[in-house]
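Re: the multi-chain job from yesterday

Posting the exact lines I submitted so nobody has to dig through the queue logs.
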Amino acid sequence: MVTGWIELLLQGVLLGGLYALFGVGLSLVFGVMRLVNIAHGDLIVLMAYVGLLLTDKLGLGPFTALLVLIPLSCAFGFALQAALFERILNAGPLAPLLVAFGLAVVIQNSLLVGFGADSQKLTAGGIEVASLSLGSGIDVGVLPLLTFAIAVITIGALQLLVYRSSFGRLLRAVSDDRQAADLLGVNTRTIYRIAMAISMGVTAIAAIMMAMRANFAPSSGPTQLIFAFEAVVIGGLGNLWGTLAGGIILGVAQIAGAQIDAAWQVLFGHLAFLGLLAVRPNGLLQRMAPE
Amino acid sequence: MMSASDRLSHVLRTSIIAVAIAALALVVMWPMVGSLNSLRYLAELFVLIGLAQMWNLLSGYAGMATVGQHLFVGVGAYSFYGLAVLAGWPAPLALLCTPVLGAMSALPAFAMIVRLRTAYFAIGTWVLAESVKIIAAKLPGFGHGLGASLPVPVATAFGSSSATRLTAIFYLTFITATGLTLGMAVLMRSRIGLALRALRDQESAAHVFGINSRRLRPMIFAGVGAALALLGALTTLQRLRISPDTSFSLLDYTVNIIFIVIIGGIGSTAGPVIGAVIFIVLRESLANLGPIYLIILGLVAIAMMLFEPKGVVGLIDRLARLSLTIPFRRPILSSLSNRKRT
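And the result, structure tokens for all chains:
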């Protein structure tokens, strides 16, 4: 009985790793350029489909495909920023939201035209069903464990990049005050493009991990966006480790809900989010102060 | 003495009002001459206009963009079903009570997400809508995930033949849409409208001038919740059934509505009307394209935001000024709605 509960708790925590991966891309773009990319979920699904093409048509394994997908996705993010978002960022808070919204609908329906409405899954040669025994009868899935480890590594790397590197100093300067950074000779436009590229690189990782774990379809994007958003807000805006904590809370709440009724899984996540919002409106952890 | 340009803009304005009145008269007489199918389409158009006015009020004027408008539409549909079918109230009474329930559900919803700003507020409304949709599928008596049809006595409460029923729905939706549109025009000329625009444009400055956003925003939000619930009940009368997926449809009541307002013209009273007409015409002519239709709509909306953020209303203003080559002091269409702005 107790081992059963511990197993469920672990499942929830590990699922949180995936949601944290969804969230950090969203969080990074918001932190740097105050853009809430409402198309984030659809971009995750888009990259999952590109990953599917790479494995199906080129016969690559999922992790080799990921190595190809990351640079592709980064380039796409860079281009997206240059062609679309940077034209609209100065037009007030509503315009970027609506442009991203239009993009989301375009991506969703393009995928529907290209791939049909059927749900797909990335086969990973057995690791998706493999499990590991932790002793005392507690088993965890290899894939969730791997996803969680990748999430921790990704967030750690981003944390180092943002708070320890000279590029990170530029990022934080642009985030604090774009005009001042401009005046000091920082090419803020390029910084924005690179930030979007990095966000899309993380999105590629999230996409492959999601695609191996569960079925996805052209219409899955909005759900992924909501999970990403919940992880970010629960953890506290602008705090990368907070997003991991937010993802874990969301994952545990969902697994708890799923025990009562499959349909409650998503609802419990929403309720945890709304409940925490009422108690701690600024999220669990504060925005990290620049060091 | 009127200047030439003044006289011209006066003539234009008068003619626009005259055309609007003629169109209204035609619409009022329409059920006597039009086909049943045309009644159906027009009723649908009126509902879209109402939905678009409400999204425009929140996003374009009050600075509270939402992506969860389908929440209140669904609440309206389900409360109509609950009152008219489960509680057995007379259908007209149930219809009249749905706005009350809409407003009552809007206030706690607002309290839950009020601390989120702009885009996060928008996604917060979405999470609420999705949560309530899941709960609606679990409610006893409402047919769970599949939904339920209106029983015959309720379905025929507004007319036993399809001709009288459609005519009644036509007038109900027409009165609602006209009421909401005129209400918007009046509201925007009032002190409340001025206060809302001030809050949207520069919140801290508005506070300095004594505008109380803590009272104003929940009031507007509750009003919108009430109107959306009524529109949801009217949609239920048209479709004769409720279900979690159709009554709380993200696509029908939020996505399409946002496109309507962006294309028509955000932040103007005429925009939602023009946008809704364009939407229906586009949909009927491109219906066989399926998902490609939504791709086109999305691309048009993105292009609008990039090149003409004021939508077709802005475009008309620009063309009118170009073709007449006489400088107007104010844009024509927006002057109809914002004449007291200065």
